[in-house]
């Protein structure tokens, strides 16, 4: 969520610095900092499921503030994520593979997510 933006950026920087270090590139992360982060259980790798759930939580916060889930693309990464969910839903409707699972569809619908303007639930159609 927005309120933790600075912390999230810092965490991402630490992850990127580790990748740079492992590739032999210039990195600002020291062995001492890595050890300290390991001691507190720092998660060096963010898996796809965690990323998706983080965005869902961000969308929940957005809905609390704005009372809807129609996040404009101009809203940055959350807006682009919402657009991607709708596009993935449309892929299902035309019989193509999609990373959007039944569980994810349920999670989005449970917060009142609109697959297109004026459409809340039901099977995807090719007109969405």
Report on the structure:
The protein is mainly α and 128 residues long. The protein has five helices and no strands. It has helices at residues 5-22, 31-39, 48-66, 77-93, 102-110. The longest helix is centred in the middle third of the chain and has 19 residues, at 48-66. The two termini are 28 Å apart. The relative contact order is 0.09.
Average of the residue pLDDT scores: 85
> Rough shape?
elongated
Number of helices: 5
Taking pLDDT < 50 over at least 5 consecutive residues as the criterion, the unreliable ranges are 118-128
Alpha-beta classification: mainly alpha
Content of β-strand = under 5%
Q: Distance between the terminal alpha carbons, to the nearest Å? A: 28 Å
Rg over alpha carbons: 18 Å
Oligomeric state, counting identical vs distinct chains: single chain
Major beta sheet summary: none
